[in-house]
Amino acid sequence: METLEIKNLKVAIDHKPILNGVSLTVAPGEVHAIMGPNGSGKSTLAQTLFRHPKYEVAGGTMRFGRAKLNEMTTDKIAQTGMLLAFQYPQSVSGVSVQNLLKVAQSVRGERVSVDTFVKNLKQKAKSMRLPAEFLTRSLNEGFSGGEKKKAEILQLAMLAPKLVVLDETDSGLDVDALKIVGREVNKLKKNGVSVIIITHYNRVLKYIEPDFVHIMYHGRIIKSGRKDLAHTIEKGGYNQFIKTKQKG
Ligand SMILES: Nc1ncnc2c1ncn2[C@@H]1O[C@H](COP(=O)(O)OP(=O)(O)OP(=O)(O)O)[C@@H](O)[C@H]1O
Ligand SMILES: [Mg+2]
């Protein structure tokens, strides 16, 4: 398994600086939670890791094992085993969950017979309490907010990734769905998969135990700690860290 290594990453959108030097190392099997106020650059970091064309890399390096992400396109990055669950999953008319996953698997060179694939997919969906008809509907079209998030998790469970980035996957989920997400993520962790979870809420960290918690503010990681940092944030908000930062 590979280590993700981000060093002094600077990112701009339309020449406006958004990330101002982010460094982060995620070893195999580690769970890192990234928290921080709205607009601090969390989704920007996620999108940049996958080289979304809107985000200009103005400096720094991103590597996943030997793969130099700076020089790669999104489809090549997907082939390394990195996977992003979006904050706002898009609808794709005419493409079903089932078809999407089948294509995604074959792009990554996994050869599984259609029968086996569909059987596995149905089992997985059932364990996540998603009805079978869900798999043949157009992706995310008319899905409820929580169903979209579940479809993202289903993809994680099916695609055997090496590193996943969950951008607010927990937002809008009911407590049962939250537990299911927790269960799937913990399975990934056990298998040595690295996890970056971007979240505003402590409640998801009840089900997903983070090894590290980072606070992002104005495009920088201003504080890193263990799980208890999330509790400190919940009690006292972000101001306590921002003030310290300004003084020091
Ligand atoms: N296309 C864009 N054009 C201009 N500014 C942008 C664009 N996309 C993002 N930004 C700005 O970049 C900053 C960081 O946004 P980002 O989405 O990374 O924040 P976030 O930490 O994920 O916030 P949230 O917690 O609300 O999801 C914000 O100030 C946002 O307005
Ligand atoms: Mg965001």
Summarize the entry for a quick read:
This protein has 248 residues and is of the alpha/beta class. It has helices at residues 42-49, 74-79, 97-107, 114-127, 145-159, 175-190, 228-236, 239-247; strands at residues 4-13, 16-26, 31-35, 56-64, 67-68, 82-85, 92-96, 138-139, 163-167, 194-198, 212-217, 220-225.
Main attributes of the structure:
248 residues, binds magnesium ion, 8 helices, six-stranded mixed sheet, single chain, Rossmann fold, 35% helix, binds adenosine-5'-triphosphate, four-stranded antiparallel sheet
Q: Going by CATH, what is the homologous superfamily of the domain at 4-90 and 162-247? A: P-loop containing nucleotide triphosphate hydrolases
Mean pLDDT: 89
User: Can you count the beta strands?
Assistant: 12
Specify the CATH architecture of the domain at 4-90 and 162-247.
Answer: 3-Layer(aba) Sandwich
Distance between the termini: 38 Å
Q: Which percent band covers the strand fraction?
A: 25-35%
Q: Biggest β-sheet: count, sense, barrel?
A: 6 strands, mixed
Bound molecule types: adenosine-5'-triphosphate, magnesium ion
Radius of gyration: 18 Å
- What is the helix tally? 8
Strand order of the largest sheet: 6-9-10-3-11-12
Unreliable residue runs = none
Estimated helix fraction: 25-40%
CATH topology of the domain at 4-90 and 162-247: Rossmann fold
Quickly name the level 1 CATH class of the domain at 4-90 and 162-247.
Answer: Alpha Beta
What series of H and E elements makes up the topology? EEEHEEHEEHHEHEHEEEHH
The global form is: globular
Which structural class do the helices and strands define? alpha/beta
